[in-house]
Amino acid sequence: METVTSADGTPVAFERTGSGPPLVLVHGMASNHARWELFDVRPRLAEHTTVYAMDRRGHGESGDIEEYALEREFEDVAAVVNAIDEPVHLFGHSHGGLCVLEAALRTDNLRSLIIYEPAGPWEEEHLYSEEMNEELEALVANGENEQALLLFLREVVNLPESRINDLRAAPNWAARVEEAPTLPREYRAPVSYEFEPERFVDMTTPTLLLVGGESPQWSKGVAEQFHETLPNSRISVLEGQGHVAMNTAPNRFVDEVFAFVQVFR
Asked: pTM for this one?
């Protein structure tokens, strides 16, 4: 693993593989850079790009500070992007999707942006529950990390039990459990985030917005809101898929990313 130093001094780790134009991957909640190893997603991406798979703060080998602020995560992503010596393709999933959107305003080193169902802003359907967050915090405080993670996957992500069983059988499950203490703060973070369209109207970075055809309406609503705001964006619907097509249809996911990246090589 390599590291860069973020604006507040926190070390941010990433792993570099492959060759070709740089592609930075930013994972979502309850995960780290190893999530891209599942179903050979990162090895396939590394066949044609130099993949920089980063650990967000509090995850994997990246550092952390006691007082969490969502804005620091935006700076972390920008720090990784700025450390690369040529313009990059920047991809973010879920919570990571929101991070890369804001990071795009903090760097001039982008070639394109790919955002897959970012967390918030939610309009029609507000997914945050203070009661749920308190329950997550209580479980984590009692050292019941796995129970907190399972609660989050079942009640917040709404994954079916069969999909959860697949995740539990994956080699990175132990890492997900270990990082469960980050769940409450990251679940709460998008609630305080205010999407201000006027800040993005001049952002001309080519942007692909991915959304699952089977995903809930809030995901589609966020994609449409971003599409209306970002002047150089388009939406691609992954028919038959939901929030984690990299797991459920990895070949389709990789092909979708490649198709977009190759346009701007």
From this structure: 0.94
Contact (CB, 8 A) for 77 and 100: yes
Question: What's the rounded mean pLDDT across residues 142-163?
Answer: 91
Interacting residues of 242 by C-beta distance below 8 A, sequence separation 6+: 212, 214, 215, 248
What is the distance between the alpha carbons of residues 253 and 239, in angstroms, rounded to a whole number?
A: 11
Predicted confidence (pLDDT) per residue in 75-98, tens digit = 999 999 999 999 999 999 999 999
Domains and CATH numbers, the chain: 2-125+193-263 (3.40.50.1820)
pLDDT (tens digit, 9 = 90+) per residue, 168-209? 998 889 989 999 999 999 998 888 888 899 999 999 999 999
